[in-house]
Design a protein that fits this description.
The complex is a heterotrimer. By secondary structure, chain B is mostly beta strands. In chain B, 10% of the residues lie in helices and 21% in strands. In chain B, the strands form 2 sheets. Chain B has a two-stranded antiparallel ribbon with strand order 3-6. In chain B, strands 4-5 form a two-stranded antiparallel sheet. In chain B, β4 and β5 form a beta hairpin. The chains are: A alpha/beta, B mainly beta, C alpha/beta. The A-C interface holds A 36-39, 41, 48-49, 51-57, 59-67, 69-70, 73-85, 87, 90, 107-108, 110-111, 114-115, 117 and C 21-22, 24, 49-50, 52-56, 58-59, 62-72, 74, 88-89, 92, 96, 196-198, 200-209, 212. Chain C: Keywords: Oxidoreductase, Pyruvate.
Chain lengths: 303, 94, 384
């Protein structure tokens, strides 16, 4: 049969992810794209546990567990070490959650990106500190309930625009992705592999316990996030040129929110507020993509 | 590589927490409450169930029909929801 | 080659001669000249190394960890606030068994802002598992970097080479810069048996329960103990090849001494002429300069101090609520010894306060005058 994603499995069964874990799907896809000539580093995150306890591991590639705020720069160090030793054709990947990326790890990530060190950084974003029991992070969306933003004081701050922060570093390539669209994610990883410098991939990873949703709809939710424009899929090239990966007709936001316990408390008005914020951001992205068209057209021509 | 590692004393271990074993020692099938059952007659061999399995627990047989690896399947049910032909039903484990 | 160089540059030369392959560093006074010279050495092609100019000391150590885990010989340097910022990852480097070598310039901790010398920064890291060498000359700094790699790479533990800010870091002395070929013979290229290797995939540092974590700590302690012998062995070998032998401690006029001064770094250097002068006056005084502080050479200290009449320890550091660290540890080493001498613990020179010869002499004389120390901590020169 014809597979739409690579058949090779580098990650194995038996890992410790919860049922319906988006982070596990993200890793499975990532390793399909990256292959066994990959070295990874994880800061504290769900994957520090998912990979398995010593002396076992599930990723099937060399992996250096590191401190919470150091994923990007440990990857920089690994790359420098490989370069010093003349080891080529190895992907060096920092693999971190949203807390380790948006919050505690942002300084080191900024340093690595500013130096344009030749690594791939993947943030699997489940939109809160899930490993410690669902506390809010700066990646938690407006309106969501976590254990530190209870229903009556749900999160009133908007999700940090990490892609824009990365783009402000003139990063060669940054892209968002979703576990519901593995073909798109894998295509983006393959592109990231093909170019030098720092590459940042931001993949939305459903978390059934943290989102208070049923495990079986994990992929559905990741799809609805894109279809309701809550989590748009796009790329930014050279920190300036935007490209929508898909531009689906907008589905009602409630399709995405209703099945999730973390949004259950929101009133109709609040949902409308949230919708406005989403539309505002989405139209900004479309404008940027429109502005960037000549760049991509020219790129196509030179090909 | 997938064997359980059994050490008796510190000198059996590596210098640091260096994990050489594979997590396939961890039979996650025991977590399962619901079990996916595939109706071959409805299956169109699209591979979507295989694609969306977070636990790498769906293999394709020689004829490309999906087979659930019950040793590891955690019973999340994604395959049943994603199947475009409703060929997978989740049934209660005994 | 003989060359007049500053202490900081002795660290850079040490890294160059050791053929460091990756350097990751962040600037801090009084360390800056270390990385400035290394940057130039890399830019001029004298040193074939990857230089990562990180955005903080925490990242300097984290980058060093990544590079070392990938199998490269790695060097960094810092001081005071920078070292404190690294604290978390200092533990990580040890637990991950990474043979990184780092220079640390002893500078007092803020607040208030200060840049002058004191050992409390590195003393605060004594429980991180880093081996620590306290140096007392420009030559020793350079030599210690080379020796540090030789020890680190046998026990898979990181080593800190420590020097006083300004007193050593910015002082120029004549220094023998050994031939590269001789250093290569002493310190061959390192093949890390545990490096990240795509052909031998393994995960490092994964979640470990009480069933095996304990044994991993035991292994660190065993290898730390083993490094005591290695410091002696490699110090002897260094002497045979380069004419300068190094041990765990350096003794001076100790043989028949009944009063022994124990100290480290530049205070120990200042003490030498005092010992000379007092010897001429007929006082049986001697000196031990502790060079390797981690692991603490307890056995050797017992052997050297057992049965002496009096011991005084001078610390340029303080563990608040207790005393100076060298005093604390020397006392601990001597506790179960039959002929344990009474011990005086002096705090001197904090925040770079000068400790000239007359102050050292005052401390020795006070010790000789008293039958027993009046307390656990004796402050010298506090303006009252």
């Amino acid at each position: 049969m014809k597979y739409t994603i690579p058949a090779q499995e580098v990650m194995c069964s038996g890992h410790k992810a919860c049922q319906g874990c988006g982070a596990a799907l993200a890793m499975r896809y990532a390793l399909k794209a990256l292959g066994p000539r990959t070295i990874m580093t994880f800061p504290a995150c769900c994957w520090s546990v998912i990979d398995g306890p010593f002396p076992y591991s599930a990723v099937g590639v060399p992996l250096f567990h590191t401190a919470f705020e150091t994923a990007a720069v440990v990857a920089s160090g690994i790359r420098a070490g490989l370069d010093a030793r003349g080891e080529k054709d190895v992907n060096v990947v920092a693999w971190a959650g949203d807390g380790g990326t948006f919050d505690i790890g942002i300084q080191a990530l900024s340093g690595t990106t500013e130096r344009n060190d030749n690594i791939i950084y993947v943030c699997y974003d489940n939109e809160a500190y899930m490993n410690t029991g669902v506390q809010r992070s700066s990646a938690t969306p407006w309106g969501a309930v976590t254990t530190t933003t209870p229903p009556r004081h749900f999160k009133k701050e908007r999700k940090k625009d990490m892609m824009a922060i990365l783009a402000a570093h003139s990063i060669p390539y940054t892209a968002s992705a979703s576990v519901a669209y593995p073909e798109d994610f894998i295509k983006k990883l393959n592109y990231a592999k093909s170019i030098e410098g720092t590459k940042f991939l931001h993949i939305l990873a459903t978390c059934p316990p943290g989102w208070r949703s049923a495990p079986e709809i994990a992929v559905q939710l990741a799809k609805l996030a894109v279809q309701t424009h809550a989590f748009p899929l796009y790329e930014i090239h050279e920190g300036r040129y935007f490209k929508m990966s898909m531009n689906p007709a907008k589905k009602p936001l409630t399709d995405y929110l209703k099945p999730q316990g973390r949004f259950r408390h929101l009133t109709e008005e609040q949902v409308a507020d949230m919708d406005r914020m989403i539309d505002e951001r989405y139209s900004y992205l479309l404008e940027q993509a429109e502005r960037s068209k000549p760049y991509f057209d020219a790129k196509k021509e030179t090909k | 590589m997938s064997d359980e590692i059994k050490w008796k004393k510190e000198s059996d271990m590596p210098l640091m927490a260096m994990s050489m074993g594979r997590m396939t020692v961890n039979k996650t099938g025991s977590w399962r409450n619901l079990r996916p059952v595939i109706e071959k007659e409805k299956c169109i061999k699209c591979g979507i169930c295989w694609k969306f399995c977070p636990d790498v627990s769906i293999r394709l047989d020689e004829e490309d029909y999906p087979v659930v690896d019950l040793e590891f399947c955690k019973g999340c049910g994604i395959c049943a929801v994603e199947c475009p032909k409703d060929a997978i039903t989740m049934i209660k484990e005994e | 080659m003989q060359k007049v160089i500053m202490g900081n540059h002795a660290l850079s030369w040490g890294a160059l001669l050791s053929r460091a392959e990756v350097i990751a560093a962040y600037p801090i006074t009084p360390q800056t000249e270390v990385v400035e010279l290394l940057s130039n050495m890399c830019a001029d092609g004298d040193l074939d190394a990857q230089f990562i100019k990180v955005e903080s000391e925490h990242s300097a150590m984290a980058a060093s960890m990544g590079a070392s885990a990938a199998g490269a010989r790695t060097f960094t340097a810092t001081s005071a606030q920078g070292l404190a910022l690294m604290h978390e990852v200092l533990h990580w480097a040890t637990g991950a068994r990474l043979p990184i070598v780092m220079g640390n310039i002893n500078r007092a901790m803020a607040p208030p802002w200060t840049i002058w010398t004191e050992q409390t920064d590195s003393i605060s890291e004594r429980d991180t598992g880093w081996l620590q060498i306290y140096t007392s000359s420009i030559q020793e700094i350079l030599d210690s970097v080379i020796q540090a790699y030789k020890v680190a790479e046998q026990v898979y533990l990181p080593v800190m080479v420590v020097l006083d800010s300004f007193v050593l870091s910015h002082t120029n002395e004549n220094c023998d810069i050994p031939d590269q070929s001789k250093v290569d013979a002493y310190l061959p290229k390192f093949e890390n048996a545990y490096k990240l290797d795509v052909n031998k995939p393994a995960a490092y540092g994964g979640l470990t329960g009480p069933d095996w974590y304990y044994e991993l700590r035991y292994k660190i302690q065993k290898d730390t103990e083993r490094s005591l012998d290695l410091f002696v062995e490699t110090g002897k070998e260094f002497g045979e090849m380069f004419g300068r032998e190094y041990g765990l401690v350096e003794t001076y006029k100790l043989d028949d001494a009944d009063t022994v001064l124990v100290s480290s770094a530049s205070i120990a250097s200042t003490a030498r002429p005092v010992i000379d002068a007092m010897r001429e006056e007929g006082h049986k005084v001697g000196l031990i300069r502790v060079r390797v502080f981690r692991p603490f050479p307890s056995d050797l200290m017992r052997k050297l101090l057992e049965g002496r009449k009096k011991v005084l320890v001078v610390d340029r550091n303080i563990s608040f609520g207790m005393s100076g660290a060298f005093y604390e540890e020397t006392k601990a080493a001597l506790y179960n010894v039959k002929n344990s001498p009474p011990m005086w613990g002096y705090i001197a020179g904090l925040g770079g306060r000068d400790v000239p010869t007359n102050v050292v002499r005052d401390m020795i004389e006070q010790t000789m005058k008293e039958d027993h120390p009046s307390g656990d901590i004796i402050w010298i020169g506090v303006k009252k």
